[in-house]
Amino acid sequence: MADKIATLHLPGKEPVELPILSGTLGPDVIDVRKLGAQGYFTFDPGFMATGSCKSSITYIDGDQGVLLHRGYPIAQLATQASYLEVCYILLYGEAPTKAQYAEFERMVMRHTMVHEQIVYFFRGFRRDAHPMAIMCGVVGALSAFYHDALDINNEQHREICAFRLLSKMPTLAAMSYKYSVGQPFMHPRNGLSYAGNFLHMMFGVPTEEYKVNPIVERAMDRIFTLHADHEQNASTSTVRLAGSSGANPFACISAGIASLWGPAHGGANEACLKMLEEIGSVDRIPEFIEKAKDKNDPFRLMGFGHRVYKNHDPRAQVMRQTCHEVLEELQIKDPLLAVAMELERIALSDAYFIEKKLYPNVDFYSGIIMKAIGIPVSMFTVIFAMSRTIGWIAHWNEMLSDPDQKIGRPRQLYVGASEREFTPLEQR
Ligand code: SDX
Questions:
Q1: Which residue is catalytic, options 221, 229, 313, 363?
Q2: What is the largest distance, in Å, between two alpha-carbon atoms of the chain?
Q3: Residue 147 a catalytic site member
Q4: Is the domain of 385 the same as that of 300?
Q5: pLDDT tens, 395-412?
Q6: Residue 203: pLDDT band with limits 50, 70, 90
Q7: Which residues form a coiled coil (predicted)?
Q8: 291 with 324, same domain?
Q9: What pairing do the DSSP bridges indicate for beta strands 29-30 and 16-21?
């Protein structure tokens, strides 16, 4: 892949020739691996211009607002494929035949139950525990139940772990919600769709038959798809780094959940709803727009901006359309949507946001849809984590299949004290 060379002139050294590698799409990369031998490290806090790996799973063009999963545009997948089809595509690289899809769906829907002992993990949490705190703990603990398939170098073991995680995340997520409201856990119903079963476990009660609303089911499935994967974002990079040490997949996914929880990342949907509730009415928007511009004010418009998208987030466009469909079809007049629409209109016409290229991202609309569906704000990021589990698994799997794979171990620019003598306490 290297037919171009970058020549680096370092002080007092012979010019260093660094290979330039080209991929299928997107910027070329400069292979800097030999720089270490020249006594240099690269320096790129936040990895703004650093490629951590080769990948064929997802491609993003932030300037053009392009998002492809295995080459398929997100808008086509979100409107023409089910989430489980997208899971198959992310995991195996190609769209499944009808027979392949039927087998994949059967496998996913027959691993939905969790070990009965896991119920006791929940008892250790306070009822008001944040569901993300529960998910970090319980997902990581799953490795204690599956000693039979934890050899990460065994492809079959990796595949069964993928099914167990994909199948059980909705069950555990719904359990974390039910525990918080003091209702009994609902057993999965394998005859329902993936999204339908999740809604059943979330909102069903043992005392009556739960009817899945097809509009809500479709919106939920689309939210899962729009959050399924997103290249080397913070939580996916966390999963890759944890996996590079050989940690088991359940521990790696738990690390991904922890990283996603941050308000700058997956926690933004919850933070965005709280922000809309704090704004409260259209006439208070200008006050918050000014706060967002104020360098001395830590406030940021949650749901706006993106490290990669310096144009529109293609997921936000599909999410916006879904948002209007759901509210229209469910006849919900959510005053927060009026605030969100006016905030979007003002932000998109404001010179600061235009100059900084701050557009609504995927989290801006997802929160409004989930609120309309009746999902509590504290569950928003849990649903993001559930949806992203397939992306984390696909990247974890790709990393372990890469022959060049090594343990991730970045270096640093050391700015601390030079070597000095230590004076023992009794002499200080
Ligand atoms: C997700 O990586 C991914 O792909 C993530 C994700 C995925 O699917 O995995 O897409 C999911 O995390 C979406 C992003 C959700 N986060 C939010 O909505 C939180 C609000 N957004 C910001 O925190 C911020 O935009 C980030 C974290 C998303 C991106 O930050 P960057 O790329 O590090 O940019 P930055 O913080 O350096 O900001 C650039 C400038 C700054 O101003 P200057 O210092 O240049 O003067 O833009 C300003 C920032 O102050 N800015 C904002 C802003 N976001 C950036 N100002 C007001 N409101 C905002 N939301």
A1: 363
A2: 79
A3: no
A4: no
A5: 999 999 999 889 999 999
A6: very high
A7: none
A8: yes
A9: antiparallel
Cα 304 to averaged position of ligand 1 atoms, centre (Å): 7
List the strands of the sheet with 16-21, edge to edge: 2-8, 16-21, 29-30
d(CA 232, CA 229): 9
Is residue 244 within 8 A of residue 364, CB to CB? The reply is: no
* CATH number, domain containing residue 289: 1.10.230.10
**Residue-by-residue DSSP string for 66-114:** EEEETTEEHHHHHHHS-HHHHHHHHHHSSPPPHHHHHHHHHHHHTS---
Which residues, 6 or more positions from 120, have their beta carbon under 8 angstroms from its beta carbon?
none
Q: What is the pLDDT of residues 213-239, one digit of tens each?
A: 999 999 999 999 999 999 999 999 999
Q: Which residues constitute the domain of residue 179?
A: 72-262+377-401
Together in a domain, 142 and 224 = yes
- Looking from the CA of 260 toward its CB, the CA atoms found within 13 Å total 35
pLDDT exceeds cutoff 80 at 1: no
Predicted TM-score of the model (pTM): 0.92
Mean pLDDT throughout 269-277? 90
Domains identified in the chain, total number: 3
Same-domain status, 134 and 157: yes
Return the CATH number at 9: 2.20.28.60
The backbone torsions φ and ψ at residue 407, rounded to the nearest 5 degrees and listed phi first, read: -65, 135
Mean pLDDT of all residues in the chain?
94
Ligand 1, atom 30, residue with closest C-alpha:
307
Classify burial at 270, counting beta carbons within 10 Å of its beta carbon; exposed 0-12, middle 13-18, buried 19 or more. Answer: buried
CA 23 – CA 64 distance, rounded (Å)? 18
